[in-house]
Amino acid sequence: MPAIVLPGPAFLPPSDFLPRPTADGSLTLHSEALGEHYHSMFGAVAESEHVYIRQGFGSCVKQHLDLLEVGLGTGLNALLTLVEAQRSGRQVNYLALEPFPLPPDVIGALDHPGSIGRPDLAGTFHRLMSAAPDETLSPFPGSTFRRSLARVQDLEMKAAFDLVYFDAFAPKVQPEMWTADVFRMLYAAMRPGALLVTYCAKGDVRRAMRDAGLMPELVQGPPGKYKMLKAFRP
Ligand SMILES: C[S@@+](CC[C@H](N)C(=O)[O-])C[C@H]1O[C@@H](n2cnc3c(N)ncnc32)[C@H](O)[C@@H]1O
């Protein structure tokens, strides 16, 4: 008789996430129950700047780009990207998926604008993080920001993005995020030539990406991590 496969329990983030300082002085959230944090303990800002800004936004050549983030979390990647777009004179349409949004006061307590040396953006950042789901805001001229409560597994958009930030919790915590099925949906959502970046460099993840048709490549990782992944849609 064939084995009966029951669906696993649905993921629900625990409620014990608390602020914790990381090695570069910026704050992240840590959960004792989950044994997981939102960013690297070697530096939250250092990790975001390396993985998503330098290896992602910085290596995408388009002047005007459509960007998808999987896992808005505390909004650090979004803040850094919008600031970098403004600084470099590029325009970004930023869509962030987050089915488990954090309360704006929890995000505010991390003081990301202060950590990146832009305390003047505290009000703008608060408005972005407390915007209604699916409301499109224009924090800087030419750029837009929208957050959605959709899960990546429910993404139906096709050939819509030039760049994807894949910032899920680690595979040991949320294995269902790192499957070939999820990467197939992202492949379909990416335009030919589009790039996906993630902090993870695991062999299983690389294989899942390849099974989905993406072309993963190991590149230098952020502080405290030897490698990370960049994957192109051919
Ligand atoms: C590592 S954290 C993201 C950190 C974030 N990028 C930042 O800058 O703070 C992972 C995020 O993925 C979110 N997430 C969990 N399941 C998801 C799903 N099915 N689709 C999209 N995001 C999901 C979590 O709620 C969490 O906020």
Task: Give an overview of the whole structure.
The chain is of the alpha/beta class and 234 residues long. The protein has one domain (42-232): Vaccinia Virus protein VP39 (Rossmann fold), CATH 3.40.50. Helix content is 26%, strand content 24%. It contains seven helices and ten strands. It has helices spanning 44-54, 76-88, 104-108, 112-115, 122-129, 180-189, 203-211, and strands at residues 18-21, 27-31, 36-37, 64-70, 91-97, 144-148, 161-166, 190-198, 215-220, 227-232. The strands form two sheets. The chain has a seven-stranded mixed beta sheet with strand order 6-5-4-7-8-10-9. The protein has a three-stranded antiparallel beta sheet with strand order 1-2-3, with no helix packed on it. β1 and β2 (27-31) form a beta hairpin. α1 (44-54) crosses α2 (76-88). The longest helix has 13 residues, at 76-88. The mean pLDDT is 95. The protein binds S-adenosylmethionine (SAM). S-adenosylmethionine (SAM) binds at residues 11, 13, 38, 70-77, 97-100, 151-153, 167-169.
Provide a brief overview of the structure.
This protein is 26% helix and 24% strand. The chain is an alpha/beta fold and 234 residues long.
Q: Any chance you could write out the topology, listing elements then pairs?
A:
Elements: E1 18-21, E2 27-31, E3 36-37, H1 44-54, E4 64-70, H2 76-88, E5 91-97, H3 104-108, H4 112-115, H5 122-129, E6 144-148, E7 161-166, H6 180-189, E8 190-198, H7 203-211, E9 215-220, E10 227-232
Parallel strand pairs: 4-5, 4-7, 5-6, 7-8
Antiparallel strand pairs: 1-2, 2-3, 8-10, 9-10
Helix pairs in contact: 1-2, 6-7
The protein binds S-adenosylmethionine.
